[in-house]
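Lecture notes, part 5. Sequence design as translation. It can be helpful to think of inverse folding as translation between two languages: the language of shapes and the language of residues. The source text, in structure tokens, appears below.
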């Protein structure tokens, strides 16, 4: 939960002020290691397309996913998601300044800075052979952090992609997806199918 007056928090003001004032001299960033490089996550299911389609809907309806659009004829479904714990779904590397060091997303959350992760999923379910279907999942991530000057920095990237922006007076922060959103949807669908 965000602290109501995060910008008045002495720890945040001291830590972030130092990083912002001195910029690249004191604060350092280590970009994340990107483990997922594919532009989508795909899996083959040994079940008919109708069963797989229904399993995707059943799983998504019981989670934090919001089904926005369903086009059964084309096999395309779009969903939205959001999280108050962005570190579960994205990795923005390590940020170090003064005596503080740790995952950028965690430091932002601990300091109470307003931040949000929202995204969209495209899920394609198609038949590849009688009794076999394929699920392809691609996500769009949008992560936003608001600093002391109430300026918002946005990182927007897709599955297997990355985004880099400046934070402070010269430090760059790179964010990548962890693949959890895509893989959770596929694992949940498999679970609904008893696989």
């Amino acid at each position: 939960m965000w602290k109501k007056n995060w910008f008045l928090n002495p720890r945040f003001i001291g830590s972030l002020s130092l990083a912002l004032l001195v910029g690249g001299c004191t604060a350092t960033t280590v970009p994340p290691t990107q483990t997922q490089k594919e532009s989508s996550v795909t899996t083959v299911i040994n079940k008919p397309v109708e069963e797989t389609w229904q399993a995707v809907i059943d799983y998504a309806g019981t989670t934090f996913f919001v089904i926005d659009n369903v086009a059964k004829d084309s096999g395309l479904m779009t969903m939205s998601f959001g999280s108050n714990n962005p570190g579960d779904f994205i990795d923005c590397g390590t940020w170090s300044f003064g005596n503080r060091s740790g995952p950028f997303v965690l430091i932002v959350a601990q300091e109470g800075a307003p931040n949000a992760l929202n995204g969209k999923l495209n899920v394609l379910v198609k038949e590849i052979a009688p009794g076999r279907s394929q699920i392809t999942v691609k996500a769009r991530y949008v992560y936003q952090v608001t600093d002391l000057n109430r300026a918002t920095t946005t990182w927007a990237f897709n599955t297997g992609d990355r985004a880099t922006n400046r934070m402070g007076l010269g430090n760059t922060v790179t964010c990548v997806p962890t693949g959890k959103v895509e893989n959770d949807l596929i694992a949940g669908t498999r679970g609904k199918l008893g696989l």
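The translated text above is only one of many valid answers, since several sequences can fold into similar shapes. The chain has a mean pLDDT of 84.
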